[in-house]
Design goal:
By secondary structure, the chain is an alpha/beta fold. It has 2 domains: about 160 residues, Rossmann fold (3-Layer(aba) Sandwich); about 60 residues, no CATH class. The chain is built from 11 helices and 10 strands. The strands form 2 sheets. The chain has a 6-stranded mixed β-sheet with strand order 6-7-8-3-9-10, sandwiched between helices. A 4-stranded antiparallel β-sheet has the order 2-1-4-5, with helices on one face. A hairpin with a 2-residue loop joins β9 and β10. The chain is globular, with a radius of gyration of 17 Å.
Length: about 230
Amino acid sequence: MLEVRDLSAHYGDAQALWQVDLDVAAAETVCLVGPNGAGKTTLVHTIAGLHRATTGSVRVDGVEVSGVPGHRVCDHGVAVVPEGRRVFGHMTVRDNLLLGAYRRGARGEHRRTEKEVYELFPRLAERAHQHAGTLSGGEQQMLAIGRALMARPRLLLLDEPSLGLAPVVVDEVFDAIAEIAATGVGVLVVEQDVHRALAAADRGYLIVEGRMAAGGTASELAASPVVRQRVLGM
């Protein structure tokens, strides 16, 4: 589904990513963990076409998308749930969702997709005509995920989905992520809560200072001395 090879990226003269390799298969949940400033969000933005790669390749279903503008990457079936949710607070929940269906391949399916989102997150159905800015943080995160799903993606990128949420809400969000992957969508989750991320993922990667430092199954990463030292502080 997603193949990242030898990917590097800069901010001006400062290099943020060094020759990164990463894969996500269909129906697979992969977590990306690392300390603050390690390059996790930069990697997500570069994959999604929101930040231009310096060198390297990003392929989605075998199609090269590095250097393609973000809205065109979306056309290839990639959707992003950004850090901090970024819902449109002055608009209703339903209008936020409908914005997510602007992709050509999703417009004709928006009624069916909206129904599926409400089944995944029943609270959004209850608040469909409520302004998004009045929702709780957890409900806004559900809305951000639902909005991304309205694009009918084959690859979903989530940046810090548990940020600022109560533990019970985090469980709901990760349960939903598992349901999404079960439909065949490839999922890449950037997450600070390493224990929660590894519990939810099939595989994972550790990124440190813009370089991939470790990779493997979730259980292998959990036992990795590098992860325990660089992220868990053990």
